[in-house]
Write a structure and sequence with these properties.
The protein is mainly α. It is built from 22 helices and no strands. It is globular.
């Protein structure tokens, strides 16, 4: 089935109906409903379909769940010691632990996915609730997610959970709960080492980077795009070697193309729109905008890495996920909250057409394949 042909109209129509009473309660209800639907879509996908169609490791995650759920704790602690004290193992121990703990209660991979996917959808929903101010922003956010992000989130199990823990760390750092933020961040590292990249925005938020500095950094990263495009392999290898994991540095030695220029141009254009539209005074008036704007220079810098290897989209994902809110801030700032209705309609319509172009995203439930 073409799942986006259902999801796109669903989030739009539901949002329009609930926008008749646009307040925090209705927005919370909208977020809960949409996130619940997307949670089940993510959990009940066919692993074989994801792997064969999108070349994502979903089927490997299913095999990992089936093979590690019955592993004894003595083996787990031996692997833990080898990973973090001897440096002789590259397994993600946190993900092992999730498999083992939840595997004690269910043997179904889709049920495992349903439980652990909450690690992403709960904090993502909280961020949308706390950092949005209108139903239009939320409709755009969910259409953006379905159109441009969903396929990577429902396929890449470990990274989805790591991003969820990083979102919890972000919420904690905003609330001045630094110890809690550090705990969530470290837990994310045990799920997927690429989570280390999120230390940059966390430190920038903790430090209280000024709007002027953020705008300057954002402009400078556009000047660095040619450098990133030219030396993308070397940058990827450096990141992998810094993490001490050879398989990550090897991503810089082979090319896996997948619509890379389309992705790069789209992300950079959206980022440039945010640079022009969001003003320093917007961030001074609304600290939430400043918090999310921290991601703008980072997504601008990391998005071009996909020119070397298409899987690097998952690295940029830590940052361009926040375009779900950033673009809305830019629209409201550029056109005014009262005059932005038509702009939102055009933007949502363009994303919808982009999502269903060529038939949309083919989707199979786990029982179909």
């Amino acid at each position: 089935m073409q799942i986006n042909l259902f999801l796109i109209p669903f989030v739009i129509i539901l949002g329009l109906l609930m926008s008749q009473s646009d307040n925090r309660k209705s927005r919370r209800t909208y977020i809960i409903i949409c996130s619940t639907v997307l949670l089940f879509v993510a959990a009940m996908r066919s692993p074989e379909w994801m792997t064969n169609t999108y070349h994502i490791d979903t089927e490997n995650y299913k095999y990992m769940f089936e093979s590690t759920r019955d592993v004894g704790w003595s083996d787990f602690f031996q692997t833990f010691y080898a990973r973090y004290f001897m440096g002789s193992d590259e397994n993600d121990i946190g993900y092992w632990a999730l498999n083992m703990i939840i595997g004690r209660f269910t043997t179904e991979f889709w049920m495992f996915s349903l439980i652990v996917d909450l690690l992403f959808f709960v904090p993502f929903g909280i961020i949308l609730y706390r950092f949005s101010t209108s139903m239009r922003q939320l409709i755009f956010a969910y259409v953006f997610y379905v159109s441009l992000i969903q396929v990577y989130m429902i396929g890449g199990g470990r990274q989805m959970f790591a991003i969820g823990l990083d979102l919890m760390a972000l919420l904690a750092i905003v609330d001045k709960k630094r110890l809690r933020a550090a705990m969530f961040f470290l837990l994310g590292l045990t799920i997927h080492m690429s989570s280390f990249l999120f230390i940059i925005p966390l430190l920038m938020i903790w430090y209280g980077t000024s709007p002027r500095t953020l705008k300057t950094l954002h402009a400078l990263t556009f000047l660095m795009v040619p450098f990133v495009l030219t030396f993308s392999n070397q940058i990827i290898m450096f990141m992998g070697q810094s993490a001490g994991i050879e398989k990550y540095s090897n991503y810089g030695t082979r090319a896996i193309q997948g619509g890379s220029w389309t992705f790069i141009i789209l992300i950079e254009m959206l980022s440039f729109f945010c640079l022009l539209a969001i003003k320093k005074k917007d961030m001074l008036v609304n600290p939430n905008i400043r918090t999310i704007y921290v991601m703008a220079p980072l997504l601008t810098f990391f998005a071009p890495l996909v020119i070397s290897n298409g899987t690097m989209i998952r690295i940029s994902l830590y940052y361009h996920l926040f375009l779900t809110l950033l673009v809305s801030y830019a629209i409201d700032s550029a056109f005014g909250v009262k005059n932005s209705r038509m702009v939102y309609a055009v933007a949502i319509g363009a994303l919808s057409l982009l999502s269903i172009a060529g038939g949309g995203m083919t989707y199979y439930f786990f029982w179909q394949i």
